[in-house]
Amino acid sequence: MSAIELRGVTKSWPGTVAVDNVSFNVEEGSFVVLLGPSGCGKSTTLRMIAGLEDVSEGAVFINGEDMTSATPAERRVSMVFQSYAIFPHLNVRENILFGLKVRKVQAAEQEERLAHVANLVGLTDLLDRRPAQLSGGQRQRVALARAIIAENPICLMDEPLSNLDAKLRHEMRVELRALQRRLGMTVVYVTHDQTEAMSMADQVILMHAGRIEQVGTPDDLYDRPATTFTASFIGTPPMNLITLASGRSGAVIAGTNRAVIAGKDGEGRILGIRPEHIGIELAGKTGRRTKAKIKGIPARVTSCDYLGADTVVTATCGDQLVLIRAPGRCPLEEGELIGLAWSNEDVHVFSAETNQLMPEAKALRVAA
Amino acid sequence: MIGRFRRVTKGLALSLFMMFAYAQSAVAVELTMYYPVAVGGPLTKVVDGMVAEFMKANPDIKVKAIYAGNYNDARIKALAALKSGQPAQLSVMFSIDIYELIEQDAIVPFDDIVETPEEKAWLNSFYPALMGNGRTGGKTWGIPFQRSTIVMYYNKDAFKEAGLDPNKPPATWDELVSMGKKLVKKTGDKVDRWAIMIPSTGYPYWMFGALTMENDQVLMNSDGNKTFFNATPTVSALEFWQELGDKHGIMPKGTIEWGTLRKNFLEGRTAIMWHSTGNLTVVKKKAKFDFGVAMLPANKRRGTPTGGGNFYIFKKTKPEERKAAMKLIRFLTEPKRAAEWSIKTGYIGTSPAAYKTPELEKYVADFPPAAVARDQLEFATPELSTYQAGRVRKLLDDAIQSTLTGKKPAKDSLGSAQTQSERLLKRYQ
Amino acid sequence: MSSAHTTRNQVYGWLLLTPAAILLITFTHYPAIATLAQSFFSTGTVSRPSKFIGLDNYRSMLEDEVFWKVLENNIWYAVGTIPISIAIALLMAVWVNGKLPLRGLVRMSYFTPTILPMIAVANIWLFFYTPEIGLLDQVGALFGFASHNWLGDTDTVLGCIIAIAIWKEAGFFMIFYLAALQTLPPELEEAAKLEGASRWTFFRRVTFPLLMPTTLFVLINAVINSFKLVDQLFILTKGGPDNASSLLLYYIYEAAFSFFDQNYASTLTVVLLLMLAVIAIGQFVILDKRIHYR
Question: φ, ψ for residue B148 (rounded to 5)?
Fold first, then answer.
């Protein structure tokens, strides 16, 4: 039995469809991330699970029960909001205990649970502070504590880390994931940040324009993107999507003549290759390099962005722009001629028409 | 083309110059006059019309007539304008403001302005009863203009319905009570029509002046420094007023609103109302039933206070302004105009000569109620007017209202009003 | 060099302040001080010029029965108008803040009494209260109630005046509450909903405390208005019958313009100002501690 199941859920307002026929399962105890650019319907989907938005069509099941028209309270889910939704006039203790007081939990039990949760999220010393006296990270913890203390098996999180600075965000990611595992919570987590999705999720549901684009583990999404959208959304920098043309001996990169896919038509196909999977072949250490001398597919460097651990090289290859991620500092100059090489298994071919992966198309090995 | 343009501009300049020159010579004196309206109807139009007529007849005098609200407002506005240095040469104000205005040193007596024997005679051309509130210390300070008395309006249809003779309105207090009991119409406990309403907000002391006079008692002496609030006839007059509601049940209990009373009468909610003659023309226009107007009923005698506004001339005026003001006042109080004013409003024609004009003679012949106010002048008495008038008036008003609302018996409320007014007036004796 | 610079800056500062200061002194400070000074003098007439009489005006004020009566009336007026108009304002604000068909129209109709001039309002209400022919009595008659002389009865007249003030003010205060409600993030209500809080619980525990700064503002306004809003008396009752509906400010008007006793009016004004100052300071000091400002 899934903790949460959506069956053909649609949310529409007059004139717009925010969420279009979305179905997925969330297994108990798993950490599922709803990922997508802003406006893709991920937050609306989460709010429909919480009961904060009505479902236009379809059904929402929570622990096997149809909760489509249940009130938020009946669904027994917790939620962490992007703005934290902390009550500004209540101190930390009152904020955390708000729900227990509403449900008239006994005072002794309230104290016990408060001590436990405060310890868990590291707020024990701050219980008497007002929200205005807390840092962003501390407020985030209050919101988290309020969600945890309810002891609901399901916790929904709507971009909970997006208001934090980069360093804190990283720390909280680790902590949040550890907490989820320790408490065995089922978490549905909305974010537009692929790093959060890749680092935390058991399963990622990638959404685009109100529909599900792809569902899978982070590895699936990275290694086996089903569409050009997935390919271009996951990874930094994202996968190169190179338009192919037909050449004499097979498909070629438009504007070059060396075949990259043997015996196949290039028209209507897109070649996908991640920047980190492209090797740079240099013709030699000295002497003037010419197209004839270099190995691989010739390309010309337009810029190099040194990032510390690696360098992102931008090069033109035929008509196409290609990004290459090279380890360390890469001693290339603008205008320099280089050769590009990659392994067959790293190449993905998509249809330019449907933007879907074409699994039958086998890429030609391009190497030194 | 250019020549024509020149001619046009030349002509334009010339005519502008002439207009300017004309204006210079024409408006020798400018007068500002405030005037109040205390009753309904389009009285401002009548005043403006008469003032326009005056300016046509006297092109060298320009008059700015400013409507200034009710009597209280008019006094406040005129005095405030004077204090702030804005010129006002004359105003129509409450006849009873006389002592206050003298004390403020705001007005001049007309005796100081009149010169010719003809003008002096003019001062004596008005009904003496109307001069009561305009004279003190042997001098004339106010000239009667929009003057009224209280009259009794009654609904003849209601009288017929109650089996009474519609041409015999109550002439005494006893008749008022006995007829009143027949005039009250009820369904169950609910009163559909009261017999009588005497207004007790706005100017309660004025209505009370009528009741006390009918009991043969005045409220103050002619020097304005003594009141007779606790005299036995005064107390019994208030008791009678209160008993109309409390004992006889022919008038609503509590106070009766001055402002909405006319509507009550016109809608047939009361068979009789006591009100200013200034309402006569409006009632005549709006009443959907046959109505009559009668003098107020007598107890020991008939009686009513006069009321309304007089002309005053302010002290801060130049001699030529005073002359112009005199001219305007004489124009507006001329018998012919007094007659016109009376016909258009219902106020009293201020001089016997007004009632001898063909217009008013004809009007009275066609509409006898118009003469009631005049005929009643014979029994009239000055309106309550003393030094410290505002306070003294309020003392009496409060006393009347506290008795009518059943808070204090007449003897107590009037007794304490008298004690306090004596304290206020001591220094003027 | 630097001290010359400072001096010049100070001169600039004072020059910038001057226009506002002149206006403030001419129209606020000078009249207030003049009023205070006048209250120590007698009212002058031609025969007896004004002279210094110390606290005599205050002494006669304490002996003035009407003063005590209007003060008592004013307290009842405040007690009657303030809590009810605020409560109604809050209720209306919460109501029109929600999803509602024709919301704009409802908001506007609640606000209308505020924009009508009080004199016009009083004229309308005069015909509501008029016995027999007034709306109140005519509606009452449908249900078989006997006619009542609302404004002519010392027991009901103040209540009638209070009702008008509430009707006039509630819409005005509603606007402030509505503005404050719109700044509350909707997530707060959603978070509370998820915890199972009822609308009432949420209102009591969250909305109302968060509106406290607005409530303080409205409260101070309401208190000041309860001393200031007397226009309706001019049309409806002139303070009567027997001062049953007279209020302090109206009495000041009477003293100044009906009795021509400027100095007694000044005395009453000083007392009114003192009372208002004490109330306002008290409200700030007591309530400020208990209010959460965002």
Answer: -140, 170
**DSSP SS3 for B294:** strand
The pLDDT confidence band at residue B1, using thresholds 50, 70 and 90, is very low
Q: Compute the distance between CA of residue C212 and CA of residue A51 in angstroms, rounded to an integer.
A: 30
String of DSSP letters for A10-25: EEEETTEEEEEEEEEE
ipTM of the complex: 0.79
Interface residues of chain A, partner chain C, Cβ below 8 Å: 50-52, 71-73, 77-79, 81, 83, 85, 87-89, 98-99, 102-103, 130, 132, 146, 150
Residue B13 pLDDT: 55
Residue C207: partners with Cβ closer than 8 Å, 6 or more residues away: C94, C181, C184
Residues of chain C found within 8 Å of residue A79, distances taken between Cβ atoms: 190-191, 194
A296 shares a domain with A218: no
How many other C-beta atoms are found inside a 10 Å radius of the C-beta of residue B423?
Answer: 10
Tell whether domain B2-147+307-381 is in CATH 3.40.190.10. Answer: yes
CA–CA separation, A205 vs B285, rounded Å?
85
In A, minimum Cα distance to C213 occurs at: A89
Q: Which residue has the tokens 């039990």?
A: A109
Which of A80, A247, A88, A245 is closest to A164 using CA atoms? Answer: A80
Domain count, chain A: 2
Cis before C213 (ω within 30): no
CA nearest to A366, candidates A225, A244, A231: A244
Q: A65 and A177: one domain?
A: yes
Distance CA A97, CA B130 (A): 84
CA pair distance A352, A338, nearest whole angstrom: 27
Residue range C179-209, pLDDT digits in tens: 999 988 888 989 998 888 888 999 999 999 9
Please indicate, yes or no, if residue A85 is contained in any of the structural domains: yes
In a 10 Å sphere around its CB, with 0-12 CB exposed, 13-18 middle and 19+ buried, how is residue A82 labelled?
A: middle
β-pairing, B304-314 with B380-381?
parallel
C294 at interface of A, judged by CB pairs closer than 8 A:
yes
Q: Is C6 within a domain?
A: no
Q: What is the average pLDDT across B406-412?
A: 91
| pLDDT tens digit sequence for B316-342 | 888 889 999 999 999 999 999 999 988
The reply to whether C2 falls in a domain is: no
Q: What is the CATH number of the domain that holds A288?
A: 2.40.50.140
CATH, domain B149-306+383-428, list 3.40.50.720, 3.40.190.10, 3.90.1300.10, 3.40.1000.70: 3.40.190.10
**Contact yes or no for B255 and C151 at CB 8 A:** yes
Segment C134-166, tens digit of pLDDT: 888 888 878 877 778 888 888 889 999 999 999
* Mean pLDDT per 10-residue segment, chain A (368 residues): 89 90 92 92 92 92 90 90 90 91 90 90 89 89 91 91 87 90 92 91 93 92 91 90 82 78 76 90 55 72 89 89 88 85 85 83 49
